[in-house]
Amino acid sequence: SPPPRSKPRRLNQPLHILVTGTSRGIGASILAAFAGHRVVGHSTRGGEGRIAADLADPQAPASLWEAALAALDGRIDLLVNNAGIFEAAPIGGDSAAWAATWERTMRVNLTASAELCRLAVLHFRARGGGGRIVNVASRAAYRGDSPDHWHYAASKGAMVAMTKSIARAYAGEGIYAFTVTPGFTVTGMVDEYIESRGGIASLGDLPIGRPAAAEEIAETVRWLGVDAPPSATGAVIDVNGASFVR
User: Fold this and answer.
1) Which listed site, 54, 66, 85, 149, has its alpha carbon 20 to 30 Å from 46?
2) How far is CA 197 from CA 189, 193, 201, in A?
3) Would you name the residues annotated as active-site residues?
4) pLDDT tens per residue, the chain (246 residues)?
């Protein structure tokens, strides 16, 4: 028999959505893009209706998921993993500090996302009807990053591979997974990095003439979570102004 089709996704049928990393930048824009749906946001410190959870804590993903389920009446239709950190780890520094930064980055950017994806897949399967996952990675997954950010690029490359694995494994059950890979985006997280490199002009080839706006990333996430056809599952959408073309 053919695989189940996802139910029609319309604004008069609000989705129940969990979005991580929503305190600013892309995450805050994602919350705004899902206006009309029931959305629970997350940040490390909470506040403004967001669930507090430090994803560097191995216990945090499970507690965040349970809190989101409680806030959304026991149902989540869409998980958006946007939370991430971008911390420098110079190879010439202290070995223990380099390893600790690597492990913290993997824990926050990859392992916490993986644990939330696992909980989402189990939830979607248990209640039936399928569901969607959108993971926000980075163009660094494909082009790499600076000498001080091996760990960041590695975490995002692994996120892409994980998402494709989820898409292949569960599409037959109506569970669809997608990845967005932004390039430089106007957010607080990268502003200091851009300035440290000499400003926008020093960043090299930006054919569009500017970094992406957070709202552009958010609209891509919204489309994947709400409107993208099931046959697009496993897709990776680049939003980098053609600064890196695969």
Assistant:
1) 149
2) 14, 6, 9
3) 152
4) 444 444 434 446 899 999 999 999 999 999 999 999 999 999 999 998 899 999 999 999 999 999 999 999 999 999 999 999 999 999 999 999 999 999 999 999 999 999 999 999 999 999 999 999 999 999 999 999 999 999 999 999 999 999 999 999 999 999 999 999 998 776 655 556 566 555 555 455 677 777 788 999 999 999 999 999 999 999 999 998 878 888
Look-up of token digits 């500090």 = 97
Contact 143, 157 (CB under 8 A): no
Give the C-alpha separation, 230 to 246, whole Å: 23
Which of 162, 3, 177 lies closest to 78 in space, CA to CA?
177
- Beta-carbon contacts of 230 under 8 Å, excluding residues fewer than 6 positions away, are 5, 6, 171, 174, 176
Q: What is the DSSP letter of 185?
A: B
Residue 8 CB burial class (10 angstroms; 0-12, 13-18, ≥19): exposed
- Per residue in 42-77, is it b (16+ CB within 10 Å) or e — as a string? bbbeeeeebbebebeeeebbeebbebbbebbeeebb
The token pair at 131 is 């569901």
